[in-house]
Amino acid sequence: MSCHPLMVTVALCSLLVGCAHDSKSESRPLASFKAGAACYDRANEPYTAVVDSHLHYRPFDGRAIPFQQVNDFLRQTSVRFANVYGIGQMLPANSSCSNYLKCPGTPVSPTTRNDFVNAANMLEHAPDDLHLTLSMTFTDLANPQSTLAIMALYEKEYPDMFRWMGEVNLVKQAQFANRHEPATPQDIRQWAGFMNELEVRGYPITIHSDLGNNSDPRLYVPLMEQVLSLYPNNKIIWAHMGMSYELTNMKAEHHIAILSAMLDKYPNLMLDASWRILDDYYFSQWGNQEKYVAFFNQYSKRILPGSDFVAFRNNRFAVYQEELRVTGRIHQFLSDEAFRNIALGQNYFDLLKLEYVAPEVCSS
User: Fold this and answer.
1) E strands along the chain, which residues?
2) Of 46, 136, 201, 283, whose Cβ has the fewest other Cβ atoms within 10 Å?
3) What is the Cα–Cα distance from 68 to 87, expressed in whole angstroms?
4) How many domains does the chain have?
5) Is 31 part of a structural domain of the chain?
6) Is the full-model pTM beyond 0.70?
7) What pLDDT, in 10s, does the model give residues 69-117?
């Protein structure tokens, strides 16, 4: 078997005293994620993830960093596998607003626009050195009646290209001022048609559903509980571990208790640990890190990494690099098993039944 130069470097570094840690800036090629690849040396290779399961290639106003440039961002990091999310809830095409938070009253509405742009870009510019999973983000969970028909249209226009759904909003308080309509219990019951179709296809769905807010931390938990109880066979990923800027003061043990109970009860549920809010307000806070590390280690097969980077046209590589670093900071403290499952991508490969394998972690 031929070896990539990085593998040789890692192998030599494990044998030679005083070997420089230059390979911290290097990353493995896509082809190395096959059975029999060199073990992963955590001391000399990046702690950031090889998977970005939550990456928005398109922004709210549609004026994006070019598709190929976003892929170049990935090539400059450890990421070799990514979900191509649009953003399903967009600002009006004739609006001058680019950040909905600064434009209260301007609607942010579900649409297919970003998904079709992503699909066209994938057809024209699919990279050979990255594995990209195209996702449907159009779904209006509060008005789900047309979802199945639109899924059929996607399959007609882009057969076998879309393999995921989400990020879609169950309840997102940040968009309340922009006419976001949370799904009700009655709405959730009407998801049965498209949830069955996702189940049959084996496609995961990533759902943004806020736990609550600083006044009532568990306010919206019953909505997610209903989704999980009605659709236990679906591969459901809970985005951002349920957190948002509206909930920044929850005790870590209360947060962990809610998630643990859900994971124990619903074996197909997974968590998406994307968005730096988790590290800024929870993981890095005094006394919290060891609690979350223990949680990640215990449920290491149920967690996916992600940056939640949004490809706004004015964002630069340094922004993506920082988001990847911050969202991956906790990886440094995980057990080898948890690191392999989460940061090295085994959970992602298993979820999508990909023919890739996370490398084993080198023995100390």
Assistant:
1) 51-56, 81-85, 89-90, 109-110, 131-136, 162-171, 205-209, 236-238, 269-272, 303-304
2) 201
3) 18
4) 1
5) no
6) yes
7) 999 999 999 999 999 999 988 788 888 887 887 788 887 788 999 999 9
User: Which spans in 180-236 are helix H?
Assistant: 185-189, 192-201, 221-230
CATH classification of the domain holding 172: 3.20.20.140
Copy the structure tokens of residue 40: 């992963």
The predicted-structure confidence for 317-354, as pLDDT tens digits, reads as follows 999 999 999 999 999 999 999 999 999 999 999 999 99
Side-chain half-sphere of 32: how many Cα atoms within 13 Å?
21
Distance CA 58, CA 110 (A): 14
Element (H, E) at 12: helix 5-13
Beta bridge partners of 40: 361
d(CA 86, CA 240): 17
> Is the Cβ–Cβ distance between 163 and 112 less than 8 Å?
no
Which residues form the domain of 146?
A: 50-352
Q: How far apart are CA 74 and CA 237, in angstroms?
A: 23
The end-to-end CA distance of the chain, in Å, is 24
Encode pLDDT of 7-46 as tens digits: 333 333 333 323 333 335 478 999 999 998 999 999 999 9
Which residues lie below 8 Å from residue 260, measured CB to CB, with a gap of 6+? 295, 298, 299
